[in-house]
Amino acid sequence: MYRTKNGEEIFVIDSHIALWDGSPENQLNVHGAQFINCFYDYHKNLSPEEWVWPKEKYLKYDEETLVHDIFNKGYVDMAIFQPVYLKEFYKNGFGDVEKNSRLAQKYPGRFISNGTFDPRAGERGLEYLEYLAEEHGIKGVKLYTAEWNGNSKGYKLTDPWAQKYLEKCEQLGIINIHVHKGPTITPLNRDAFDVADIDDAASSFPNLNFIVEHVGLPRLEDFCWIATQEANVYGGLAVAMPFIHSRPRYFAEIMSELIYWLGADRLLFGSDYAIWEPKWLIDKFMDFELPEDIQKETGAELTLEVKKKILGENAAALYGIDIEKQKEMLKNDQLAVAN
Predict the structure, then answer these.
(1) Is the pLDDT of residue 338 over 70?
(2) pLDDT tens digits for 202-252?
(3) Longest C-alpha distance within the chain, in Å?
(4) Pairing mode, if any, of strands 2-3 and 111-113?
(5) How far is CA 88 from CA 28, 100, 208, in A?
(6) Local structure of 158: helix, strand or coil
(7) 0.85 cut: is pTM over it?
(8) Around 233, how many Cα atoms within 13 Å sit in the side-chain half-sphere?
(9) Of 300, 227, 240, 309, which Cα lies nearest the Cα of 268?
(10) What CA–CA distance (Å, rounded) separates 241 from 194?
(11) Which InterPro entries match (predicted)?
């Protein structure tokens, strides 16, 4: 829980975290090393110096480290796992839905463990999606449209099989579709992360919520023009957030454009842990104000009420979380007592 200087409590939901294994022992080929090295470059170049991890720790960290960084140190009340498999690069997968689910069971009410799908898996993948819904009760999926699969280097949400999977999501009550769109990661292809296919998917499936992770950066303008037309498109702020440190003016421009086009009700905080830690991001965000000239041009404001929405209230609305009831449930759990 974040508390302002006046003692006001702000419920924080980190909508984008991961527990990964990028270690050399798990790397299947050179692409596994390229991928985690690119992640580390993002981490190293956009974090304050004192928050940069040693490379060895970054490759593979344990559950205790994640829980400590997010809940004990990082103000976060709840966190949402967004898993990515990358089976073409890693022997046992980069992320692991089963491991995430076990951690969610160990800390009731603290985690939401999302699943994932790859429409190129055909009928077999649809059966797996049913398994995730029935066994793990997932309410959301993370999609990586640039993920490699055999000779394929990506897919679009407009592909016929992707449409079948979205239909299945709707049938199963998996209503939150988080899609990585924008920043490329070596060796994945830039064009396969293009935000354009969100437009048709959002129009075709108005009962699903499409959370565009990383707000399509660097294609922010494309994302904004799509999102302003599609009321079921949201912006996930992972990757945008760390620019608050290294490029504060750029961050201000991003936030003002998002608030101008989408409004404050469709933006979700995400640290992208372990690329970045939530504590320093939230500290800087709470202290941040938009420059006067930017406010004057777009009319955007980062008031306390806006920050409360972005940090937790908007994600709570998407996942059906009653914040007051959740606070009551969590106030005496093992993590609250430890703090």
Answers:
(1) no
(2) 999 999 999 999 999 999 999 999 999 999 999 999 999 999 999 999 999
(3) 57
(4) unpaired
(5) 7, 21, 29
(6) coil
(7) yes
(8) 29
(9) 309
(10) 20
(11) Amidohydro-rel (IPR006680), Metal_Hydrolase (IPR032466)
